[in-house]
């Protein structure tokens, strides 16, 4: 029986270098974007525990919808990467124009749902004053959601044609704008009204619209977009095209929602344990989100690398790129876990001056350190699968891991309900929910790794049947 051999003569160093060149501007951009949320929480934490709790709750809901839109729009990365790899540059402007229509529509729906979600604030045991403040925060910040949907359409386009510098520069400028406006409105400096957490909402919503305008202006000037510039003429929505992108993107959005909503739901469930626990939970979650931007940026770069390789008709290189990218993400997670564990007290003190919140935050940051490896693995492998245009299976795995495993287990450990046959001796509070998150991320990482292994191996073997390369190893 003839053995089929898969090439292994690709250079790991070259692939790592290519992924790093593609990913590091996105990393800086992602860090700057998340830095806006970090600045919001950190600055309001130095106003009062009340303002911190309100912003923490509002940010939890906003963040869930934000990452859901981001995931839904990630279909742009996959589609444009495949067209770029196949050399179909003439189709890209049309795809981008339809992606902008999709982004605006998705953003409008997300904004409406974000506002409706504030009704939950009054059903989870929050103090009425905190719930009112958090609801106003959400109403204001949700005005930026349509712009964010359009911005992510352009983000997917520019990163998939290997032009990543603008996402870095624009995000940094957005962060600086956010901090400056926060300083004016949160604390009431230079004669501006002191709005507390509401100042953060105004800064973020207006900043997103400015970032969208800056991206369009950059594209009009930069030479990298001349061949595929999308805004040469007006184009009405093409519903079959938008429907195709939605079929690819909605499962990604649900995947992002599954993870983000698990974290957000825990924020709401922890709220009944008091201001100290909800504030500490948000601090640990906020810093974890900041660190998560590194493997996420690798993941977005992997969509481009894998998608372009498949567009070129080289699934063996796509498989190699997927595993090199996963290895890079996992390697970083080892370093991030050690950093969080060693400097958890310093991290807590940077966010708040309240001793009780500092102590609880340091405890929860230990759990954040524990799930770094699993979190990096699951985002890298899921991103590689998206490069293959496979989005439903990651969605199913994430729903199972977070809603079928993490939340139920966290509820049992955190609340110790009497009706359940086995519970801890005493409710573990926020710590119980974080244990559930650690184990849920592990389940997702294992299942997604297996999925990527079998899919990439199958595609590579199919190509090997056709090409029968001379070099490589037999599988």
Automatic annotation (TrEMBL):
Keyword Membrane assigned to the entry: answer is: yes
Q: Which is a Gene Ontology cellular component entry for this protein?
A: plasma membrane
User: What CDD domains does the entry give?
Assistant: MATE_NorM_like
Q: Does the keyword rRNA-binding apply?
A: no
Q: Which InterPro entries match?
A: MATE_fam, MATE_MdtK, MdtK-like
Which molecular function term from Gene Ontology is one that the record holds? xenobiotic transmembrane transporter activity
Q: Where in the cell is it found?
A: Cell inner membrane
Q: Which UniProt keywords apply?
A: Antiport, Cell membrane, Ion transport, Membrane, Transmembrane, Transmembrane helix, Transport
Q: How does it sit in the membrane?
A: Multi-pass membrane protein
Lineage top rank: taxon: Bacteria
* GO biological process assignments: monoatomic ion transport
Pfam families assigned to the protein according to its UniProt record, in alphabetical order: MatE
Could you list the residue ranges that cross the membrane?
59-80, 101-122, 134-155, 167-190, 196-218, 254-275, 287-308, 320-343, 397-413, 433-455
Any idea what this protein is called?
A: Multidrug-efflux transporter
């Amino acid at each position: 029986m003839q053995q089929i051999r898969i090439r292994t003569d690709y250079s790991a160093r070259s692939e790592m270098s290519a992924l790093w060149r593609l990913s590091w501007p996105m990393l800086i951009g992602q860090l700057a974007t998340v830095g806006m949320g970090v600045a919001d929480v950190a600055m309001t934490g130095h106003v009062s525990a009340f303002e911190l709790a309100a912003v923490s709750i509002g940010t939890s809901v906003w963040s869930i919808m934000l990452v859901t839109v981001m995931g839904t729009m990630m279909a742009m990365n996959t589609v444009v990467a495949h067209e770029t790899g196949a050399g179909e540059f003439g189709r890209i402007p049309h795809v981008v124009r339809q992606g902008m229509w999709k982004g605006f529509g998705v953003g409008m729906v997300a904004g409406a749902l974000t506002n409706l979600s504030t009704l939950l604030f009054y059903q989870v045991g929050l103090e009425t004053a905190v719930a009112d403040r958090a609801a106003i925060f959400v109403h204001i910040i949700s005005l930026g959601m349509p712009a964010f949907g359009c911005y992510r359409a352009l983000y997917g386009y520019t990163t998939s044609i290997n032009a990543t510098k603008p996402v870095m520069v624009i995000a940094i400028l957005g962060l600086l704008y956010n901090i400056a406006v926060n300083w004016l409105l949160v604390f009431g400096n230079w004669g501006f009204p002191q709005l507390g957490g509401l100042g953060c909402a105004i800064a973020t919503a207006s900043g997103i619209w400015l970032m969208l305008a800056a991206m369009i202006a950059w594209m009009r000037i930069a030479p990298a977009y001349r061949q595929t510039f999308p805004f040469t003429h007006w184009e009405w929505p093409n519903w079959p095209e938008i429907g195709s992108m939605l079929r690819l993107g909605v499962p990604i959005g649900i995947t992002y929602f599954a993870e983000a909503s698990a974290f957000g739901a825990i924020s709401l469930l922890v709220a009944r344990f008091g201001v100290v626990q909800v504030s500490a939970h948000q601090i640990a979650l906020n810093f974890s989100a900041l660190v998560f931007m590194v493997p996420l940026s690798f993941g977005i770069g992997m969509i481009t690398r894998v998608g372009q390789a498949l567009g070129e008709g080289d699934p063996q290189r796509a498989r190699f790129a997927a595993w090199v990218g996963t290895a890079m993400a996992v390697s970083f997670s080892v370093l991030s876990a050690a950093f969080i564990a060693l400097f958890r007290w310093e991290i807590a003190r940077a966010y708040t001056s309240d001793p009780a919140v500092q102590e609880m935050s340091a405890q929860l940051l230990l759990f954040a350190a524990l799930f770094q490896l699993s979190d990096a693995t699951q985002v890298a492998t899921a991103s590689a699968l998206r490069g293959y245009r496979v989005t439903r299976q990651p969605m199913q795995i994430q729903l199972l891991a977070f809603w079928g495993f993490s939340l139920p287990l966290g509820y049992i450990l955190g609340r110790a309900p009497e009706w359940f046959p086995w519970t801890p001796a005493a409710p573990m509070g926020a710590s119980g929910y974080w244990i559930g998150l650690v184990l849920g991320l592990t389940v997702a990482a294992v299942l997604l790794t297996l999925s990527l292994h079998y899919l990439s191996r199958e595609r590579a073997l199919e190509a090997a049947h056709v090409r029968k390369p001379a070099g490589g190893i037999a599988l």
